Description:
Layout: H1 17-20, H2 22-27, E1 33-37, E2 42-46, E3 49-50, E4 53-54, H3 55-58, E5 67-71, E6 77-82, E7 96-99, H4 100-103, H5 109-127, E8 139-141, E9 146-148, E10 155-156, E11 161-169, E12 174-180, E13 191-194, H6 201-213, E14 218-228, E15 233-241, E16 255-262, H7 263-271, H8 291-300
Parallel strand pairs: 1-6, 11-15
Antiparallel strand pairs: 1-4, 2-3, 2-7, 5-6, 8-9, 9-10, 11-13, 12-16, 14-15
Helix pairs in contact: 7-8
Keywords: Hydrolase, Magnesium, Manganese, Metal-binding, NAD
EC number: 3.6.1.22
Protein name: NAD(+) diphosphatase
Amino acid sequence: xxxxxxxxxxxxxxxxxxxxxxxxxxxxxxxxxxxxxxxxxxxxxxxxxxxxxxxxxxxxxxxxxxxxxxxxxxxxxxxxxxxxxxxxxxxxxxxxxxxxxxxxxxxxxxxxxxxxxxxxxxxxxxxxxxxxxxxxxxxxxxxxxxxxxxxxxxxxxxxxxxxxxxxxxxxxxxxxxxxxxxxxxxxxxxxxxxxxxxxxxxxxxxxxxxxxxxxxxxxxxxxxxxxxxxxxxxxxxxxxxxxxxxxxxxxxxxxxxxxxxxxxxxxxxxxxxxxxxxxxxxxxxxxxxxxxxxxxxxxxxxx
Length: 303
């Protein structure tokens, strides 16, 4: 890929050592900054950056629902909580409310990392309040990076569901793009699917492509990955080679149509914008926040 996917950017130190040294993490609360994420996973942004308030203004110490996101380059700690968004202290600051899908393109590296991490962690806590083993209530621990059964001491950690996403090409000038049955006409992207138990990423690519469009692919090559906290996926990107002479077969019902597109066709569609544009192009492609867009662009504009 030509660029790091937008949600894979790094701008802060995750400072994982402070998750086990909670006293040190809490000691930084008085000078820490706080990211608030509302119930719709929206945040307040200003000038391409997420708005961070003062943690001490929220509470004297971090409550049980606060999650530790890491340290900024200047050493200041950053935490996140679920709550109503508040205007910044500067009354002249121009702000808007956006979620990660819509704001990812305008965020700087630090904001992208902080919001992606906060969204994933806060969503996980809300769905993991009870043990998956025996249904016992659990409590947040390790500065929000684990939940523990207070009776048995059993710990549970944030879940991520790995999924593959693959651009299939003919080794030359054509690539496969497909449209899911639930998408509007003209909206196309790459083949993707979740990794099954006991399966490697590469094996998953071969299986998913065969199941969704009936092609047999070879030369599966890893490209890169991106967290996708909607709600808790990790997208792992690949290239693979397919045969344009092989017929498409849509056996699992997820794909409505697929086709081989030339580099020039894909470039034209990319230049028209993305799915949200008013383009009349016969081909509309994913937005810039997705790893799919980066994979497609990297292939389309390869030397």
